């Protein structure tokens, strides 16, 4: 009798082990356009990690990228679809329980970091989590952000808390974002009307409204080479910021909030427009 029980337990444990091993925990999605150097560097880091699915959605494919990325899930697009739609396309191909959405200008993604982030999320019952974004100079980019009612992001650059959650912040930057696949699907992913920029602000406003929990591990860091692609695109970012803030406000504020903060909203949009005009002039005369 003892031997039968032992054998049964042995088989059960072996079966459980096989099942758990076959459940893929993480799918990395990398939308990319022109930053080939950053992309290849990031992929080389990711391929050293065990049990990770790597999906590249290429908005500007070429033969060099096709050849070097042929061993991964490579999804070339016929035209530039933007960040939000590219991520959504990649998410439909994933098998992982978690998504890791990555800019192609992120560095220092390691097995240890991934383990820490997923453990941190589990321990604190989080549906989405991010490490701290750090500039190459060592300066902190942000510990998340607050969304001001005038339509402006206030980055949190100093931290005094052992855990930063949506009790303190309104959102995380999607440059290096871990989010449960089922949660991303429940909110229908990114709003694809946001071609690029501020799509993460809109996403987290929706996540927070629907009661999902998210946060940042203030002891875990990655390097973000900010504006690697957009710095080469003239006034594209300024134009997207102006249009997308109007889109966020109309979509998420409600009539009462818009009326209450209307003077501040108009002033802030004026600043956006002024920045756009200055950049257009600079590009035109350069």
Give structural notes.
The chain is α/β, with parallel strands linked by helices and 286 residues long. The chain folds into two domains: 208 residues, Spore Coat Polysaccharide Biosynthesis Protein SpsA, Chain A, CATH 3.90.550.60; 55 residues. Helix content is 43%, strand content 21%. The protein has ten helices and twelve strands. Strands 1, 2, 3, 4, 5, 6, 7, 10, 11 and 12 form a ten-stranded mixed beta sheet that branches. A two-stranded antiparallel ribbon has the order 8-9. α8 runs antiparallel to α10. The longest helix has 24 residues. It is globular, with a radius of gyration of 21 Å. It starts with a helix and ends with a helix.
Q: Indicate the CATH architecture of the largest domain.
A: Alpha-Beta Complex
Annotation field: number of helices: 10
Large-scale geometry: globular
Query: Distance N terminus to C terminus?
Result: 86 Å
């Amino acid at each position: 009798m003892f031997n039968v029980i032992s054998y049964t337990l042995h088989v059960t444990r072996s079966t459980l082990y096989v099942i758990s091993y076959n459940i893929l925990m993480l799918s990395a999605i990398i939308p990319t356009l022109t930053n080939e150097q950053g992309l290849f560097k990031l992929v080389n880091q990711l391929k050293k990690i065990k049990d990770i699915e790597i999906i590249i959605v290429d908005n500007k494919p070429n033969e060099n990228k096709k050849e070097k990325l042929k061993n991964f899930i490579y999804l070339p697009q016929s035209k530039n679809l933007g960040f939000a739609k590219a991520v959504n396309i990649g998410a439909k191909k994933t098998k992982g329980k978690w998504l890791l959405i990555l800019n192609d200008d992120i560095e220092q993604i390691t097995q240890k970091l991934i383990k820490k982030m997923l453990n941190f999320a589990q321990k604190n019952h989080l549906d989405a989590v991010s490490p701290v974004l750090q500039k190459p100079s060592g300066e902190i980019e942000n510990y998340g952000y607050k969304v001001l009612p005038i339509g402006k992001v206030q980055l949190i650059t100093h931290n005094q808390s052992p855990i930063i959650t949506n009790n303190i912040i309104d959102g995380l930057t999607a440059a290096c974002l871990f989010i449960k696949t089922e949660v991303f699907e429940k909110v229908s992913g990114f709003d694809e009307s946001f071609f690029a920029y501020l799509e993460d602000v809109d996403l987290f406003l929706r996540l927070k409204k629907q009661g999902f929990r998210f946060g940042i591990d203030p002891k875990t860091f990655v390097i973000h080479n900010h504006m690697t692609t957009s710095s080469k695109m003239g006034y594209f970012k300024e134009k997207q910021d102006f249009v997308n803030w109007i889109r966020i406000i109309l979509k998420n504020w409600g009539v009462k909030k818009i009326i209450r903060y209307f003077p501040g909203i108009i002033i802030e949009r004026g600043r956006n427009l002024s920045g756009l005009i200055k950049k257009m002039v600079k590009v035109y005369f350069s």
